[in-house]
Design brief:
The complex is a heterodimer of chains A (about 280) and B (about 100).
Chain A lengths: L6 E6 L7 H14 L4 E5 L7 H4 L10 H5 L5 H4 L1 E2 L6 E4 L12 H12 L4 E5 L6 H8 L3 E6 L3 H17 L1 H4 L6 E9 L1 H5 L6 H8 L3 E6 L2 H9 L10 H13 L13 H13 L3
Parallel strand pairs in A: 1-5, 1-6, 2-4, 2-5, 6-7, 7-8
Antiparallel strand pairs in A: 3-4
Helix pairs in contact in A: 1-12
Chain B lengths: L1 H11 L3 H16 L6 H18 L7 E8 L2 E8 L17
Antiparallel strand pairs in B: 1-2
Classes of the chains: A alpha/beta (about 280), B alpha+beta (about 100).
Chain lengths: ~280, ~100
């Protein structure tokens, strides 16, 4: 049974290839393993991939568009995850009809899912076309996935503008969507060498509260190769970072960066306490 | 010449990351509609009308608020056309503008 008021979370970015689907899989599996009933929807009509990342591609019978068109009901289309309780996947269709998604159709499905689930995670396609608009329209919260790289940061800024003006909450003049920034493919070493935008740089440009920093990690490819969400795979730096992001999403206060600091930095921080003039 | 280049390198300190940040700061503040967007201008306009009409009788269309961007700065322009012989209606309370 669901145990709280339902929340709709969109995973979006504007730019493609930054890690939206990886994040959707990791966050939804993380929420489910903490006991929340979670459904994750693939909004990338025509180019479905969430099923592959979640490892259930051979169990797809009906899809999102089938349910919208009334060819199947939700319980027929939802795929129950075999590894953990509480996790369900609604795959996208492979047909190329991008107009298959309508505000009314999507709204009806989300309302129906809200009766059963604590969290409804919407995996947005790239771009700002129909699919992306539909994925964010009903959102209560948004996780903006960004790489520390110029085009990704600019696109994130664009999508933040869309969230603030084109969502249902914006149209109805309700409390705005709660925005979170998730920085992915981050390399501490390259930041130190001055080759990559730092967390602070990106936060300064986008000014959105930080949900987490996922390091560039070989574990992400390994997990996707095997069709296992990062948060359900063997322990890794990426898994730890995603788990912390999930706990922050649930309201826990977890300090950033403590694991990234090496022991010399920690000692310097301690010394800094004694050095402070005030 | 090599020494000069080296000195220049030492003094400039422009890493690829800082170049990226500078470039982004310029385009993002110019493209972004969320922080200085039309919604905020509209809201500012209605609030200004409320405040001004507390003191002076003016019509709504006599107050114009515009945000213009040129180069790397923005100009917020406020135009209030006062009717002839406009009187401050709450002079006793506050007259300084």
């Amino acid at each position: 049974m669901k145990n709280s008021t339902s929340k709709v979370i969109v995973i979006t970015s504007g730019k493609g290839g930054v890690g939206k689907t990886t994040t959707s899989a990791a966050i939804s599996a993380g929420l489910a393993s903490m006991g929340y009933r979670t459904a994750v929807i693939d909004f990338d009509i025509g180019l479905r991939n969430l099923d592959l990342i979640m490892g259930c591609e051979r169990r797809v019978v009906y899809d999102f568009v089938n349910v919208i068109n009334g060819d199947a009901n939700l319980s027929q289309a939802l795929i129950k995850d075999k590894r953990i309780e509480n996790l369900f996947i609604l795959p996208a269709s492979q047909t190329r009809d991008k107009d298959a998604l309508s505000k009314e159709g999507v709204g009806k499905i989300i309302e129906e899912l809200k009766k059963e689930f604590d969290y409804i995670v919407c995996d947005s396609p790239a771009g700002i076309e129909k699919g992306a608009m539909m994925a964010l329209y009903y959102a209560d919260e948004a996780i903006v996935v960004t790489n520390p790289e110029v085009s990704s940061v600019r696109d994130s800024d664009r999508i933040l503008g869309v969230l603030a003006s084109k969502s249902k909450r914006a149209e109805d003049k309700e409390t705005p969507i709660r925005e979170h920034l998730l920085l992915t493919r981050y390399s501490e070493a390259r930041v130190k060498r001055g080759e990559m935008l730092s967390v602070e740089d990106v936060l300064e440009i986008l000014s959105v509260p930080l949900l987490g920093v996922i390091p560039e990690s070989p574990a992400v490819l390994t997990s996707s190769n095997r069709g296992v969400p990062v948060t359900l795979d063997t322990q890794s730096d990426a898994r730890l970072a995603y788990e912390q992001a999930v706990r922050r999403l649930l309201g826990e206060k977890i300090p950033f960066d403590s694991s990234a600091k090496n022991w010399t930095k920690k000692i310097w921080d301690k010394l800094a306490l004694f050095r402070s003039p005030a | 010449m090599k020494i000069i280049n080296f000195l220049r390198f030492l003094t400039q300190k422009r890493t690829p990351a800082s170049v990226a940040k500078e470039r982004l700061q310029i385009i993002v503040s110019h493209e972004s509609n969320r922080k200085s967007g039309t919604d905020i201008i509209k809201q500012l306009q209605t609030e200004l009308i409320e405040v001004i009409s507390k003191y002076i009788k003016v019509d709504q269309d006599q107050i114009k608020v515009q945000l213009e961007r040129s180069g790397d700065y923005s100009v917020l322009e406020l135009n209030v056309t006062l009717p002839e012989g406009a009187a401050l209606t709450r002079e006793k309370e506050k007259t300084s503008f």
